[in-house]
Each structure stands twice: as C-alpha cells, then as structure tokens.
Amino acid sequence: MIELLTNLFTDYTLRTVALGSGLLGIVSGALGSYAVLRRQSLLGDAISHAALPGIGIAFLLTGSKSPIILLLGAIVAGWFGTIQVMSIVRHTRIKEDTALGIVLSVFFGFGLVILTFIQKMPNASQAGLDKYLFGQAATLIEQDVWVMAGLGVPALLLMGIFWKEFKLLSFDPDYGASLGMPIRVMDILLTTLIVVAIAIGLQTVGVVLMSAMIVAPAAAARQWTDRLGTMVGLSAFFGAISGVVGSIISSAMLKMPTGPTIVLVMSAIAIFSLLFAPNRGVVWTWLRMRSNHRQLQVKAVLEDLYILAQQHENREHAHPIGVLKTMSNGHGGVDRSLEELESQGLAKKVVVVGWALTPKGFDSAHNEFDSESENVRSSN
Amino acid sequence: MSAAQIEIQLIGSVVAVACALPGVFLVLRRMSLMSDAISHAILFGIVIAFFVTHDLTSPFLVIAAALTGVLTVSLVELLTRTGLVREDASIGLVFPVLFSIGVILISRYAGNVHLDTDAILLGELAFAPFQRFELFGVDIGPKSFWLMLGILLLNVTFIVLFFKELKLATFDAGLAAAIGFSPLLLHYILMSLVSITAVGAFDAVGSILVVAFMIAPPATAYLLTNRLSILIVLSAFVGILSAVSGYWVAHWLDASIAGSMASMSGVIFGLTFVFAPGRGLYAIAQRHRTQRWEFAGRMLTVHLYQHEGLAEESVENRIDHLGEHMQWESTFAARVIRYALKKEYLNENDGFLQLTESGRTLAQKAIVE
Amino acid sequence: MPEIEIQVPAIEVTDLTVAYNEKPVLWDIDLEVPRGKLMAIVGPNGAGKTTFMKTVLGLIKSAAGQVLIEGKPYTKARHLVGYVPQRGSVDWDFPTTVLDVVMMGSYGTLGWLKRPGRQEKDDAFTALEKVGMAKFANRQISQLSGGQQQRVFLARALVQDAEIYFMDEPFQGVDATTERTIIQLLKEMSDANKTVVVVHHDLQTVPEYFDWVMLLNVRKIASGPVSEVFTENNLRLTYGGKVAFLSHHEAGEMFEEKDQ
Q1: What CATH number does residue A340 fall under?
Q2: Cβ neighbours of residue A51 under 8 Å, at least 6 residues apart?
Q3: Fewer CB in 10 Å around end: N or C, chain A?
Q4: Would you call B40 an interface residue with chain A, using a CB distance cutoff of 8 Å?
C-alpha cells in the first residue's frame, strides 16, 4: 500500500495517469451534477458516442493526432449530436429516449466507418485513434493532461461564474425567464460545458463508459447533501477519488484496464452512498421505518393499558400480559413495548398479576389519545 | 456478387428484421435506451457463460444473456423504486457496472481466447460467412444466419401470439392490467427478447448495430404511419434497406460494415425526418407557409368580429390602426388585408374594414373551433 | 411619481392571439386591468389560462397583439412584475433550501456575477415571515407540504418587490391554513395598490376573494368587476354546452404537444 502511494509520486506514468484521471473526475463530477439534476443522465451517453466521428474527422481534415485538435473535433461532434437530439424531439412526435438512441448508435456507427476507413488509408500513421473507443489511460502523457486542464479548468470557472443562473435553469427555468435571464443561452452554455467534460474523458475511459463518469459521482453525492453547492463539490471529490484510486489499482494489478476500474470504483461509491448515506440512504430509511414501527407498537400498548385502566375504579389496577397480547391482535412486540414504557416511567410491573399504568402514564395516555380525539372532532 | 457478399447482406437483413420487431415496442413504450443498456450489460452474461462453456456458440450464452438482460432491467427498476435516483440515472448507473466487470474479466482471464471487447461492441460482419453451419455433413450456410433466423422466428412468434396484448399493454397499461393481462410479465418477456436478440447478433454485427437497428428503423416508420401493424412491417423494411445499402457503402469505402449499416439507418431516418409526407420538416414548413396567410386572414376576421358593433369599432377596425393593434408590420398587414379581400371575407370602405357574411361565419367558426 | 402614470392601466393587453403550429389557443384577447385590482382568471381546463399568463410574461411568443405593463412593453417593465409559477412545474427534490429558493427572487435585480449577500438574505427572511415560513428557512424543500411549497413560491415573488404579480393556481392542492394565509396576503397587496392576477379554479370563492375577473375560453368571454361580469350567463358561455367542451378538448391536445 505504502509502496503504491510512493509510486504515485515517483512513477512518472502512474503520476500522469492518476493526475489525468483525477482531473477528469473533478470536471465530470462537478458538471455531471447538473446533468443528473436535469434528468439528462443519458444525454452524456449520447454525447460521448456522438463524439467519436468528430475525432476521426478532425484527424482526416488535419492529419494531426495532437490531442487538442482531436478533442476539438470530439466537442464539435458531441455538440452537433446534442443539437440533433433536441431538433428531433422538437419537430417530431419521437420522444427523447428514442432521439438519444438514434444519435448514440448512428453517430457511433459513423465514427466506426471513419476509423476503419482511416485504418485502411495507405501510409497513414493511424494507430492510436481507437484508444478513444475504450480508453487507454496508460497512454496519457503530460501534454494530454495539460490539454485536459486547459479545457476543464475554464469549464469549471464558467460554471462558477454562472452559478446562480445554472441553478435557476436547473430548478425553475420558466421563473428564470420571467426574471429576464436568457435561459436558452444558458441552456446551450451548460450543455456545451457538459460536452467539454465528456470530451476530455474519452481518451481515459473511452466512449462507452464515459457516461458513467457523468452519472455515478453525482448520483452518489446527491445522497449525502441537500445543498447544490455541497453536491457539486462532493461529486467532484468523488470523481477525483475514483480517478486516482482507479488508476492506482489498475497500475498495481496486471491486465486491469484503467477505464473500467475507475468506473467500478466510482460505482462502488455510488452504491455505498445509496445504501448508507444518512437520511436518504436505503438502510437509513429502513431503520427509520423500523423505529417508527416500534414507536407505533409502544403507543398501541399504551393505549390498550389506558383503555383497561378506564374500566376500573383503581387506575393502577394491573392486568395480565395475556390480555394485552390479545388486544394487540398478534402484532407482537408487547413484551418489549412494556419494557420500553417501564423505562419511560409510564407503566409498572405488578408482581404475579401483570402490568399497570403509572399515574404519569395515565396522564400521558389521556393527553395522547383523548385530547387527540377531541381535536379530530372539533376540526370536523 | 460473390456468395460471401450475398450471405453478409442476408445476415444483415435478418438481424435488422429481428431487431426491428422488439424495437418497435421499445420505441413506443419510451424505453429505447434499454436496448443500449441491455446490449452493453449482456457482455457480463456472455463472459460468465463463456468461462463455463468455453464455447462462443453455446446455447448457454443465449440463456445467460437473457438472464443478464432481465437482471439489468430489474436492477434499474429496483434503483428507481428507491426514489433516490431517477430512471435515467438508474440506467446510467447499472449498465456501465456490468459492462466494466465484463471488460475486466475479459482482459484478465480471457486474454488469448477468441473473445475480445472490440468484437462484441463493434462486430465484424465480414468474418461472419467463415463460420459455417453443417447439417448431416452438408454446408447449408453461415452459422450466424441460421442463429439469427431462429431468433427472428422467436420474435415473430411472440409478436403474432401476443399482438393484442402487446398493443394494449403499450397504449394502455392500466386497462391491460384491469382486464387481466399482466403488463409486467409482457414487459419482462419483451426485455428477454431484446437480450436474446442482442446476444445472437453481437458476434456478427456488434452490440452498437443492435441498438441502431432496434431504434432507428422503428423511429423512421413512426414518422410515416399511425397503425401498429404497418409500423412493424415498415420497420422491418427500413431495417433491410439500411442493411443492404449499408453493406454497399462499406464495400465502396472499405470500412466497417456494421458501422455503415448503422450510419445508413441514420441517413434513412434523417431523410424521413426531413421529407416524410405530413410529418417531415419540409411538409411542416410548407404547411406553415400556406397556413400562415389563411391563419392571418382568420385572425383578422376574428379581430373585426370581436369589435363589431362596439364603441371602439371605428378605431379598431380601421386599416391604419390595424398594424399597430396587432403588432403587425405594415407590409404584412397590407398583404393580409389583400388576402382577406380577395377571399371576400371583408369589404373596405374608405379605410374602414367591415366583415362580409362569409367573413363573419369564418370568425364565429374560428372562435368555437 | 408623475400624475399621468396613475391613469395608465397596470396591464393592457390588445388583440393578443397565440397559436401553436398555426392552431390558435388564444384568440384576439383584449384586457385592461386597473392598478390595485385583485383579478382572477377563470375558465375550463385547456382554456389557455396558463398560456395567457405565460404570454403576458414573455415566456411564450404571441402571433399577434401586444402587452403593456404600466404602459411599457414587458422587456422594459420586468422589474415591476413578480411571478408565481405552478407549484407542480418544478422538481421539489432539488437539492436546495427554502431560504435559497426565496433568494432566487432577487436574482433578477442582482445581475450577472453578483451573489446574493446580507441584504438579499434579510429580504428573503422578511418575505418568509410574511408567509409564516420563517422557521422553515433552512429546511430542504422536499420536506415541505404542498401548502408550504406554495408559500415558499409566494415568498420568492414577494422578494421581487413588484407592482404586478402573476400567480398560476396558487390555491391548487393547498391546505386551508395556507389558503387563508395566501388570500390575506393578496388582500394586503391589493390594499397597497399592487395588482395581482391569479389563475383560479374554484368558482365558488371568486366573489369572496377577488374584485376583478376575466372569464376565458380561448377567447375572452368577459372581464371587469366581479359584481358585474361574474354572472351565470357569462359562466355558461365560458364553461357550458358543446362549444366549451370542443374548445377545451382541442386546446388540451395542443398543450400536450407543446409540453413534451
């Protein structure tokens, strides 16, 4: 483990890959929050697939494999694909899911045509373009990281500059428009930033898995917080952690492709968050439901004791536990409920005979049940 | 054409039709992207089954894939039902996990075997004719052709048998449930068929072409017809057209066949999107052009009608005030008036406009329409 | 304030026609609302009530006609207008707090780059107090009841400190307490000479809550003081008979097309 961490600082390749993946995680995590909140999670999938022909065309046009040119090609194509999705949805009765599917598969197919066409071109130094399909983080060099930073950092800055506009766009666009905000322009800008975030990740995780980088950190972050700012920050943090940890794991193990490893680390964080995040997590909700259930049970036993007590002159007349169990209709937990009531000083155990309300318990039950029924009556 | 060329086009066409059938229902049920999720996720099932059987053509692969497909759908539904993430995010969470596990398993444990991620995702139709299917020692054609034909028949049988139920469950799930069909069961059967079709096709054409064939032809047909039965037939036809034309484009460019077929399905969709009679962009634009004057004319009659006989009539219904009131450019207003005069909706009297009887009827009709 | 402005109606709509794909959903609407009125827009489902409001606010383009807010086109009078959209139009699971939503009301005057600060926070608190929600300021919005959500939206509009308020079905699905709170606020606003336009569904409460009304069903059936125009005859023209049913049906379909 320690060796791995020292490798992070000494091993040039690992350092570059981890840096690149971490950076990518930050950018896609932060911007992915908006995609998830706006229910555009799968737009990321369509954009990343649509970017593929852009890479090929950029190479065909320039003959250059410089990362910045290929990335610009990817951005233009991803953006064009998004426009197509919007245009299909707007002008036909075809729904968004189908429009996304068409753009995703057709653009990707077209990208394949171009890549295979390039491969068969005579004396072209074509090798290396197909790394964008599945991503090859190991081929990241310092220059690539600089390009990623050069595009990613401005994207994050713009996100900060238009913070409140993007928030309003995501929450209530009509209201934003009524305030005079150019909502369409903001929409296009935010989508463009998401396209940029996706494009810079293609070389590392590839076309197919890039959408996970958009969705998973944001879905995880959402579970821990109820503030947009915290969510975006946390999502970026989860993205970064997954990027770095994924790179380390994949460098430490033989034949462990980086992209899928990063995605799995990220998904593990998402699953953990969905299960265990306080307040929202599945386990938390389950525990809360159970505790509510317990409280209801205790309350029911208290009510039963109260009903019994009202039937006797002596309010502290004790009743056998069997009676209480019969009254609870087999809901169970009567013993535990009685112990709970005893610990609260509301009921007491009378040796041999059974259980009775304490005076405090009687008052408490009276307030709880009788005044409540009066309330119900008066509100009707 | 060589025999191999014909065989490739035949395989492509059979795959196209086999995909289009369940695809129609995916598109209509707004679940198109489940095809994307399933076709990626089944990599996981394929790899697991392959480790068990060591045979890429084993029927276990089909079963494993069907199970993975159902698993994917169930996981997505499970996640969505927690209410913690929306359906789109659930899909986006589930399939990358299964796909990633598949990729990692392949690269770690199947390095030297004939199973690589490229082939599954991209397919290589050019090699499909090399794998022959022999019956009693007689070569009766490429293996993938017969496999896909079998899957096609399965899909056809399902749709023919459950046409009524599918139709009802697609357009009115509530009613279907009320009269005793289980939309959920149909849903899972449909998803299994999508998975089986995807796994059958991955070896020959790759999963991405499966997505293209499942979505683009039905979407194209959806722009051309309203009737479900025609929609299905038309989707199949568009699929075949994409496959055959795609093959020849690939032949001409010497590029990926699956990619070309997917591209052609997109091109055909694009052409339909622009030129479809009635629903295409061109038809809409043309209709707007002709309707524009008719609509403006009606707008004018309604305007005159609303103010007829009222005190403000003498101001509102004057030509020189019209442009100002309707916020119309004066040239546009003049053209609308000329149009309305020609149609005899109104009379002009010294700069004052008055509805004719037919103009009044038109306005009344327009208002209650 | 110069005296002449007092004669300008708060809202003046002339010959407004709105169409989706050349199908009209609003036909040639004329409307004048004097300042300080509390006006209800009523009409059957799909009559174009929300469309009318959105068109006045410039959210939907009109095919013809014009809208003047205090004598000025909307783009120049935006600061005079506050808007309360339908509660159901947003995702209440959005990660934000009550206070944050209310502060959105100040975004219009803040301008680019500026973040809401002390002043905006105080304004938001004041508005929350007015709607009785101050103690919920730091609550996540998904934990609110329908009535509380509506009050938060109302507070957000109050922050805009507008002269004219547009509210889309503020009483839809709210509890009795909220309804009372809202109507009391509306009356106070009206007393302060603010103009309030409300899309309203409950015909029974129109005479009690409002002093001005517009009956709308694709075209304007009538508008004016409630005592004069809120008559059985006008209501029948708006809602009753085959005519109303047809237009309701058609307009409803158009909405669906547009919404998706």
Answers
A1: 1.10.10.10
A2: A74, A75, A77, A78, A81, A107, A195, A198, A199, A202, A207
A3: C
A4: yes
Together in a domain, A93 and A194: yes
Domain-wise residue ranges, chain B: 3-277, 282-368
Task: Kindly state whether residue A380 falls inside one of the protein's structural domains.
Answer: no
Q: Are residues A200 and A170 in the same domain?
A: yes
Chain C stretch 104-143, residues whose beta carbon is closer than 8 A to a beta carbon of chain A: 104, 107-108, 110, 112-113, 115-116, 140, 142
Tell me if chain C has a CB within 8 Å of the CB of A273: no
Distance CA C151, CA A3 (A): 58
Cβ distance of A175 and C115 shorter than 8 Å: no
Same domain, A33 and A180: yes
Query: Do C13 and C56 meet the contact criterion of CB atoms below 8 Å apart?
Result: yes
List the subunits that have 3+ CB pairs under 8 angstroms with C.
A, B
Residues of B in Cβ contact (< 8 Å) with A39: 86, 88-89
Q: To which residue do tokens 């089986």 refer?
A: B196
On whether the CB atoms of residues B183 and B25 are closer than 8 A, the answer is: no
Give me the residue from C81, C104, C113 closest to A161, CB to CB: C113
Contact C96 A227 (CB under 8 A): yes
Q: How confident is the model at residue C244, as a pLDDT? A: 39
A210 plus A316 within the same structural domain = no
Q: Are residues A295 and A318 located together in one domain of the fold?
A: yes
Q: Domain B3-277, what architecture?
A: Orthogonal Bundle (1.10)
State yes or no: pLDDT of A66 exceeds 60.
yes
Amino acid identity of residue B284, one-letter, is I
The answer to whether the CB atoms of A172 and C104 lie below 8 A apart is yes
Q: Does residue A298 form part of some domain? A: yes
Q: How far apart are CA A342 and CA B240, in angstroms?
A: 77
Cβ contacts of B306 on chain C, cutoff 8 Å: 27-28, 30, 219
C-alpha to C-alpha distance for B12 and B10, rounded to whole angstroms: 5
Residue that terminates a domain, selected from A234, A257, A280: A280
- Check which CATH number belongs to the domain holding A168 and give it: 1.10.3470.10
Task: Tell me which residue range forms the domain holding A316.
Answer: 284-373
Distance between CA atoms of residues B229 and B108, nearest Å: 47
User: Are both A65 and A212 inside the same structural domain?
Assistant: yes
- Tens digits of per-residue pLDDT, A260-307? 999 999 999 999 999 998 888 888 888 888 888 888 888 888 888 888
* Domain's final residue, options A225, A253, A280: A280
Contact call for B288 and C21, based on CB within 8 A: yes
Helices (H) and strands (E) counted in chain A, each on its own, are 18, 2
Based on the structure, what is the number of domains in chain A?
Answer: 2
Alpha-carbon distance B213 to B269, whole Å? 11
Q: Rg for chain B (alpha carbons), in Å? A: 29
Candidates A90, A98, A164, A378, partner chain C, best to mutate (most C CBs within 10 A) = A164
pLDDT tens digits for B207-256?
888 999 999 999 999 999 988 999 999 999 999 999 999 999 999 988 88
Tell me whether residue A378 is in a domain.
no
Regarding whether A313 and A233 lie in a shared domain, the answer is no
Phi, psi of C36 (to 5 degrees): 85, 5
Of C78, C85, C95, the CB nearest to A222: C95
- pLDDT bracket for residue C254 (50, 70, 90): very low
B111 to chain A: closest CA residue: A255
| Residue numbers in A near B222 (CB within 8 A) | 93-94
CA distance, residue C119 to nearest chain B CA (Å): 35
Short-list A180, A245, A185, CA closest to A14: A245
Q: Does domain B282-368 have CATH number 3.40.190.10?
A: no
Encoded tokens for B364: 């009344």
Find the CB nearest C83 among A164, A178, A225.
A178
Structural domain contains residue A379? no
* Co-location of A168 and A305 in the same domain: no
Q: Which residues on chain C are in Cβ contact (under 8 Å) with A226?
A: 95-97, 140, 142
